[in-house]
Structure formats: C-alpha cells, structure tokens
C-alpha cells in the first residue's frame, strides 16, 4: 500500500471513486466520492459524511449533511479532510496519518496508521488524537520505518495547523 499509483488523471468531471480506508489489514470504511482533481500527486475527492448518524468527539460533531473535501497524497503519510456543514460553514480539518494513497482506477485506498489530528476552522483548537492506539498497534515493532514516518507526519500536520491558515492544499492556478 505504500507504492504510488501510476494513474495521473487530471479529469475534473464527475469522475467517481470508492474511498477505502484500511486499518490493520481490514476495511474500516468504504464510501463513494466524487473526484474533484487528481494531479498525479494529490487526489482530492468530495463526499458527504459517510457514517450513520452523528459522531460527537466533544470538540467537533460530524453529522448527516456535512461535506468532506478530502486530500490524499501519493507521496505523503497523511490525508487532510476539510469538513463543512451542509450550508458550507467550515468546521475545520480532520487529518489522518496514513501510508501514501494508492489510486487504482475507481478505487482510492489508504491505510490508517491510528494517528489523527484535528484543527478547528479558526485554528485555535489543535488536538493530536489516538497516540495511545498508535502505541498499542505495535507498528513500531513490526515496521519501525513506517512508525517513524507516521510520527513525522503527525508532527508536520501539527506544525502546519499551528502555522495558521488552511490545511487544504492550494487549488491549481486557473486555466491549468
């Protein structure tokens, strides 16, 4: 799952993929999404909240109607999910530490490495999540290089979040 995909499609029409989030070798969640862009390095998709009902984390609630614009890198160990309400109000960014994404035709697969980060829309709340799950996963013993990359990715996400501004990548210049 750490190999990059050869698919460098830049089609921005209503191209669709199934996003598959793997965890510990099993499918954690699978959902359809619309491909917004794919420049060969970053695949950006948009999808409604895919779980049943409301998920209240205490610092944010994900609920039916929320829209996720998700950015997956083929060369980075994380994914950034911009979360908006059904009316377009930015809630913030939920970031998953993952192995680099692989797009194979109509599927986009990432392997969740247990570490997450939340950054509120105003940037005032930045929370590292699930570090205990990461430790318990045993990744550091099974794959020390992957564990090191995962921790470095979480540090990078936190640095970006605390630097202010958007965690979403800049859109390509118009006309490109």
Automatic annotation (TrEMBL):
Pfam family, one: DUF402
Name of the protein this chain belongs to: DUF402 domain-containing protein
Keywords linked to the UniProt accession: Hydrolase
InterPro entries, alphabetized: DUF402, FomD-like_sf, Ntdp-like
Source species taxonomy: Bacteria, Bacillati, Actinomycetota, Actinomycetes, Kitasatosporales
Annotated DUF402 domain residues: 34-161
């Amino acid at each position: 799952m750490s190999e990059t995909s050869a698919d460098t499609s830049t089609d921005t029409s209503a191209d669709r993929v199934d996003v598959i989030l793997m965890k510990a070798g099993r499918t954690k969640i699978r959902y359809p999404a619309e491909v917004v862009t794919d420049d060969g390095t970053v695949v950006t998709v948009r999808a409604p909240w895919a779980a049943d009902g409301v998920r209240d984390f205490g610092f944010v609630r994900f609920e039916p109607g929320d829209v996720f614009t998700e950015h997956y890198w083929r060369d980075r160990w994380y994914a950034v999910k911009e979360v908006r309400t059904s009316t377009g109000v930015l809630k913030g960014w939920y970031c998953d530490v993952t192995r680099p994404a692989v797009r194979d035709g109509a599927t986009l697969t990432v392997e969740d490495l247990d570490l997450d980060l939340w950054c509120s829309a105003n940037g005032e709340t930045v929370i590292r999540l699930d570090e205990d799950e990461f430790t318990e996963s045993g990744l550091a013993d099974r794959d020390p290089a992957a564990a090191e990359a995962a921790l470095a990715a979480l540090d990078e996400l936190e640095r970006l979040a605390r630097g202010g501004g958007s965690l979403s990548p800049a859109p390509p210049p118009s006309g490109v």
